[in-house]
Amino acid sequence: DGGITQSPKYLFRKEGQNVTLSCEQNLNHDAMYWYRQDPGQGLRLIYYSQIVNDFQKGDIAEGYSVSREKKESFPLTVTSAQKNPTAFYLCASSIPHQGARGRAQHFGDGTRLSIL
Amino acid sequence: DQQVKQNSPSLSVQEGRISILNCDYTNSMFDYFLWYKKYPAEGPTFLISISSIKDKNEDGRFTVFLNKSAKHLSLHIVPSQPGDSAVYFCAASEDAGGTSYGKLTFGQGTILTVHP
Which of A26, B2, B9, B99 is least enclosed, having the fewest CB within 10 Å? Predict the structure, then answer.
């Protein structure tokens, strides 16, 4: 079954620590995305990548970093510079933009990050 | 600056009746709109979409209406079922070339509760 796997489901971080959230997809999608969801708010884009070895900042990239060394993988690192990291993090992917159907993004089940 | 707004945080409907979820947008460059459904602790699931060249798209019990002049879209669910209880997000996309490839802007979400 094709899909997007995010791990771990729950993650705890101590003050001053960097943590990395995993996102793996076997959908053969070129584009991948990271979003953050806070209570009562919509999803906000952190970073996105259209192709291997390339990525772009989204609307709230400060305090985060990513890499895209493989098509299947797009890990997100929450650095100690992110002052309010407690949130629900969602990874998504999409097929190359081929008209309307290419716009839909497929999501993983998320990772909830909390500060100890 | 919230470009996509869902002004109703919650909606309660009786089973069998119609659910109408609303969404407003401000960016006239948006040309594709999507609705996602999200259960707690899971990622959003794509539900239905509409291109700006249409004013209606139907898929089973779900219909999306787009009023471009009012910059307003709505999702109709008929008949509503208890399993439809979830958070519904509208999202918008603009085709501005490579710099905004696949980027979605999400509303804050509306919690739909369908009572048996």
Answer: B99
